[in-house]
Specification:
447 residues; alpha+beta; Elongation Factor Tu (Ef-tu), domain 3; Helix Hairpins; 3 domains; six-stranded antiparallel beta barrel; four-stranded antiparallel β-sheet; 13 strands; 51% helix; 19% strand; rod-shaped
């Protein structure tokens, strides 16, 4: 067969390939090129694929290392949210809302007036309390003035009574001394009478003797006259002594009466002193009444303070700086004491994150935190760990779990961590953050 001619098998093979059918090796006859089919075909390497695989492997290694570095240096949780203090405002008095000075979501400062309640009824109560307090104070002043005047009078009467007792006692002593002296005079007068009687008896005897002698011419008339004169003198002396005795007895009676009078004066003075003491005791009762009146005055003053305080409650003030929320009151509405009016959300905010207990091993207060905010994904907010809860969240539940039962299933507990926000990083977002917003905090636990 010539070199340029084709065999039947080659023609059939080409036709089969033309229609897309692969000929079976057994159906194809031997050709001149069969020895070439038995040689192994070498595949060519693709440099682009090799480079791409290398880049992918290197990127995966770098990413894995970066992930390992991050996982070993940070712990994060998506169970976290923005927290803040929400102050519920309620009315302390009943009345009608006369002014409403704020609207929903409005920013207010501490001490700003939020609303006013009609104060007319409370103003009347305050005026009534002031009038009652003034009346009670006047009564107290009146009782005090009476006590001062009565105390002065009682002190003067007591002094006079004590002076009278002392004077009467001295008068008794003086009267008794005079009585003793007059009694001594009576004794002396009695002794003198006895002496005068003896003298008169002697003179009478001499007179009778000289009278007989003169009759018998045994004595001279001159001697008789002298005896007669001596008798008359003795009689006069006896009469004088008797008169002196009577006078002494009269003085004794007078002195005795003086003693009785002085003793009566003492009794009267002591009675006056007792009356003064009774008046002083009565003053103590009056002073106790003063204490009662002072207590009534203090109560009236407290009523004034209470009424003034109630009146001040008609102006509802913002207890903190923040935003108004959940306002439930309108002008003209009748409200009762204790009724909810609105809420104030404090400007101070922080993050409460519930980390798993297995994430707390290296967490400490003061560590830096990076925070992602779901509502503001482009915000870069930082903070630091402020404190870690002393117990897991389950322990603060209304019904804490009882692990003493037989059907115990171990569950990883979560512990609240309080994260303080960096004010510098909050610029532009401090008024946008609201309590309850979801965040993802990442705590850097290693350098």
């Amino acid at each position: 067969m010539a070199a340029g001619t084709e065999t039947m098998n080659e023609i059939e093979s080409k036709e089969t390939q033309a229609v897309g059918i692969k000929p079976h090796p057994e159906l194809v006859g031997p050709t001149s090129k069969q020895p070439d089919l038995k040689k192994p075909v070498k595949k060519k390497n693709n440099p682009l694929a090799i480079g791409l695989a290398t880049v992918i492997l290197i990127g995966a290694g770098i990413g894995g290392y970066a992930w390992w570095r991050y996982a070993s240096s940070y712990v994060e949780t998506d169970d976290a949210f923005i927290a803040g203090r929400v102050h519920q405002l309620s009315s302390k008095v009943s009345g009608t809302v006369s002014q409403l000075l704020v609207d929903d979501n409005q920013h207010v400062k501490q001490g700003d007036v939020l609303l006013r309640i009609d104060p007319k009824d409370l103003e009347i109560s305050l005026a009534t309390a002031k009038a009652a307090a003034a009346q009670a104070e006047f009564k107290t002043f009146e009782v005090q003035s009476n006590i001062v005047a009565n105390e002065r009078q009682a002190a003067a009467r007591q002094f006079e009574a004590e002076s009278a007792v002392a004077s009467a006692t001295a008068g008794v002593d003086k009267a008794k001394a005079l009585l003793s002296e007059t009694k001594l005079g009576v004794a002396l007068a009695a002794t003198e009478i006895k002496q005068r009687q003896a003298e008169l008896t002697r003179c009478i005897a001499d007179y009778e003797r000289y009278k007989t002698l003169v009759q018998d011419r045994a004595a001279t008339a001159q001697s008789f006259e002298r005896a007669k004169q001596d008798k008359e003198v003795a009689e006069a002396n006896l009469q004088a002594a008797q008169e002196g005795f009577k006078q002494s007895k009269a003085r004794v009676q007078a002195a005795t009466q003086a003693v009785a009078d002085a003793q009566a004066d003492v009794i009267r003075a002591k009675g006056a002193s007792q009356n003064a003491a009774a008046a002083a005791a009565q003053m103590e009762m009056t002073k106790r009444n003063l204490h009662v009146q002072e207590a009534a005055a203090d109560k009236a003053k407290s009523e004034v303070n209470h009424a003034a305080t109630q009146l001040s409650y008609t102006s509802v003030l913002a207890p903190i700086t923040g935003h108004v929320g959940h306002r439930t009151v309108e002008v003209g509405q009748q409200i009762e004491r204790g009724q909810a009016l609105m809420s104030i959300v404090s400007d101070e905010k922080w993050v409460v994150a519930n980390f798993k207990e297995t994430q707390l091993e290296k967490m400490r207060p003061g560590q830096k935190v990076e925070i992602k905010i779901d509502a503001y994904p482009n915000a870069h907010v930082t903070g630091k760990v402020e404190s870690i809860s002393p117990a897991s969240g389950a322990q603060f539940a209304l019904l804490p779990p009882d692990n003493a039962t037989g059907n115990f299933t171990k569950v990883v507990q979560r512990v609240q961590v309080k994260i303080a926000l960096d004010k510098e990083s909050l610029k532009g977002y401090d008024d946008l953050l609201a309590p309850g917003m979801s965040v993802v905090p990442s705590v850097k636990i290693a350098n």
